[in-house]
Design a protein that fits this description.
Subcellular location: Cytoplasm
Strand content: 25-35%
Distance between the termini: 26 Å
Pathway: Cell wall biogenesis; peptidoglycan biosynthesis
Helix content: 25-40%
Radius of gyration: 20 Å
Main location: cytoplasm
Strand order of the largest sheet: 6-7-13-11-12
Number of helices: 8
Order of helices and strands: HEEHEEEEEHEHEEEEHEEHEHEEEHE
Function: Cell wall formation.
EC number: 1.3.1.98
Length: about 300
């Protein structure tokens, strides 16, 4: 495959046997057979078509901020969309490509005096990933501001989904159900006062920095919020803050975060997740479901 894929796409940067720890926010993850960095929808479509024609497994990721890649890595072709990062504001809309950072998108909205995205000012992911999981913070979520999403289907067809078709729920969108690949998003916002928008963004970023262990590599919020409970409080009350497995630690600053304090592996993360789930269930009878997306293969034994 090496010669074929590289020869087929000379204009696209493609790396072989590339460690995904270079791209994940946890700084963990095994090697991908091939990693491609398309810069446009047309390049992405061509890569999808190639993978289908060659019967290659295909994985698409964005900023890898709420993602764990297992230590065995990913087979086939992995597409990282972070170079598809154009953002434009027009009238009361902001259109952002899937690989654009949510933080950068909120800054463009603020610069255009458009309000509605302030809640996302500190969310570390990409636009595509935020839509995939209906990311939210501080009382807001993507479902409240998204008008349409343009996707490539698994067969490489381009289509636009309206709000109803996205079937948003808590940390859910229809993108998860059909393996569509987000390529751009149109946000519907409102005219606002730029000074007030910036002040609100600054306020939320100050709160985030005070409460979250942003100085350490992590995958963000690991678990979904169980109905009737606060995840961080459950983990705190279970006495798990500061607990370490390998190089992974339950943050002393925010119990909902697992941080990489000493060259953690993805296996350390997985073991910690399972341990936290086990202890919280034993103590409180609550099963914590993961919010973080976990992909890839375990390390081959033998």
């Amino acid at each position: 495959m090496t010669k074929d894929v590289l020869a087929t796409f000379p204009a696209i940067e493609i790396k072989k046997d590339e460690s995904l720890s270079h791209y994940t926010n946890t700084k963990t993850g095994g090697p991908a057979d091939y990693v491609a960095f398309p810069k446009s929808i047309s390049e992405t479509k061509a890569l999808i078509t190639y993978a289908n024609d060659q019967h290659l497994p295909l994985t698409v990721i964005g900023n890898a901020s709420n993602l764990i890649v297992k230590d065995g890595g990913i087979r086939g072709l992995t597409i990282i969309l972070t170079r598809m990062n154009q953002i434009h504001a027009s009238e009361n809309k902001v259109v952002a490509e899937a690989g654009a950072a949510i933080i950068a998108t909120t800054k463009v909205a603020c610069g255009a005096s458009l309000t509605g995205l302030e809640f996302a000012a500190g969310i570390p992911g990409s636009v595509g990933g935020a839509i995939f999981m209906n990311a939210g913070a501080y009382g807001g979520e993507m479902s409240e501001v998204v008008e349409t999403v343009t996707v490539l289907t698994p067969t490489g067809q381009l289509k636009t989904l309206d709000h109803a078709e996205l079937d948003f729920g808590y940390r859910h969108s229809s993108i998860q159900d059909y393996d569509d690949i987000v390529v751009s998003v149109t946000f519907g916002l409102k005219a606002g006062n730029q000074t007030k928008i910036q002040a609100r963004m600054d306020e939320l970023n100050t709160l985030r920095a005070a409460k979250q262990p942003l100085e350490w590599p992590s995958c963000g919020s690991v678990f979904k919020r169980p109905t009737g409970y606060f995840t961080g409080k459950l983990i705190h009350d279970a006495g798990l803050q500061g607990h370490k497995i390998g190089g992974a630690e339950v943050s002393k600053k925010h119990a909902g975060f697992i941080i990489n304090v000493d060259h953690a592996t993805a296996t350390d993360y997985m073991d910690m997740i399972h341990y936290v789930q086990k202890v919280v269930f034993e103590r409180f009878g609550v099963h914590l479901q993961t919010e973080v997306r976990i992909i890839g293969e375990d390390v081959a034994q033998g």
